[in-house]
Amino acid sequence: MGAYVAEVALRWSDMDAFGHVNHARTITLLEEARADLLFTEAEKQGLLGMAEGMVVARIVIDYHAPLMYAAKSLQVRMSVRELKAASFVIDYTAVAQEAVCTAETLMVPYDLRAGRPRRLTTDERDFLSEWRAEQLETGRA
C-alpha cells in the first residue's frame, strides 16, 4: 500500500521565541501523526492491541526548513521499514510549505502489565506490512 498520510493541525502554542514551530513540538506533531496510524487506523481495521502498549525506543530527526505557524497544518507521510519480530521502524517525511523534516522512530510493542517488551502479533505484522514502501522520498529503503 505504501505511505500512510496524516494531516496534523498546528497550534499557536507550538511556536517558539524565534517565530517558528519549536523542535520539541515538531516531535510531538510527528507523534500525533503516528498515533493516527498505529491507534486510529489500526482500530478502524479491528486491531486494538497496538493502543495498549507501543513505545519509542529511538527517534532520529533531520530538520530541513523552519516550520512556520502560517502553514496551519503539517502533512506527515509515514512508511514502515525493518519490520522484525519485536520492533519496527517508521520513516516520516513532514511537509508544510516545503519539506520541513524527515525522521525515523524505532517502535517496540510493550506489555504494560508485565513491564517489558513483547513480540508483534500476526495481525499487527499484517497491518504494518500494509504500510511498507520500497522507497520513500527521503531515499531510505
From TrEMBL:
InterPro entries: 4-hydroxybenzoyl-CoA_TE, HotDog_dom_sf. It holds the Pfam family 4HBT_2. It comes from the Bacteria. Signal peptide: none annotated. This is Acyl-CoA thioesterase. It comes from Saccharopolyspora endophytica.
